[in-house]
């Protein structure tokens, strides 16, 4: 007998990207730290304020930049219906996070659930399936061509410095105008907009990983002005850096 649903609560060390595919619907979530999810040419960061709902059989790529505590949940396809989309990343409500924590007590994939546990997993499915209908727009493009993927890697490696587009273009062997066209064609964004997204994603990692002051985090990711960092963070996430950190720990 296999469980109708079960939790996967583990302390996991940092590791490279690997493909993940399950025969169950998968609520991918970290209760501490942050996961990185790649699919369809996009990258999502999953701190404790966000989760991904992945339909059974859907392949994704997951990497772990720093040690995390997973609190994911897997649902049998006969217990929970298919999600409205094969993949959705969304913000978790306080209720959803409480239900995830409550379901963490049942982690045996082969055990029959007691009635109370089955009720909790059913409630979690109902809440998260509803939340997944409003996915988060905060993504980072992954790029399709080798040149653009290299440009993205070079940019991300120098977020705390003054990065020049012309230098990145030279490193990948393209003229700046050609690389700019690649960004527009493959990501729908300018290089400057992608750089901004990357800096804010790195800031989220820093905020949820430790207790460094917000000012220090802003400087680490390349912002010279705290007010500019706060404004950019608020525009992208709808919260200030302090509010976001609190929400990840709440």
UniProtKB/TrEMBL annotation:
Q: Which Gene3D superfamilies match?
A: Homeodomain-like
Report a single Gene Ontology molecular function.
Answer: sequence-specific DNA binding
Q: Per the database entry, which stretches of residues form a coiled coil?
A: none
Q: Which UniProt keywords apply?
A: DNA-binding, Transcription, Transcription regulation
Taken from the record, one Pfam family name reads HTH_18
Give residue ranges for domain HTH araC/xylS-type: 149-247
PANTHER family membership: HTH-TYPE TRANSCRIPTIONAL REGULATOR NIMR
Please report the name of this protein according to its UniProt entry: AraC-like DNA-binding protein
Naturally occurring in which organism (per UniProt)? Crossiella cryophila
